[in-house]
Design goal:
Number of domains: 1
Structural class: mainly beta
Strand content: over 45%
Strand order of the largest sheet: 1-5-3
Oligomer: single chain
Distance between the termini: 20 Å
Order of helices and strands: EEEEEE
């Protein structure tokens, strides 16, 4: 399994197109919106944001 990580303290995270991967995202203050999430993927992208939205338009 391959793990990748994005960490942001303040501000939104927006990602456009991705490959077929599983996105594990959380934010303390904001919303998480993931258009397509591939739960059976061997690739995991973990996103943590303290304050701001996480939006993935894959």
């Amino acid at each position: 399994m391959i793990h990748n990580f994005i960490k942001d303290d303040y501000g939104g995270i927006e990602i456009g197109n991705t490959n077929e991967l599983f996105i594990d995202a959380k934010t303390d203050l904001g919303k998480v919106k993931i258009k397509n999430n591939y739960h059976k993927s061997d690739i995991i992208l973990k996103i943590e944001n303290d304050c701001g939205d996480v939006k993935v338009n894959n």
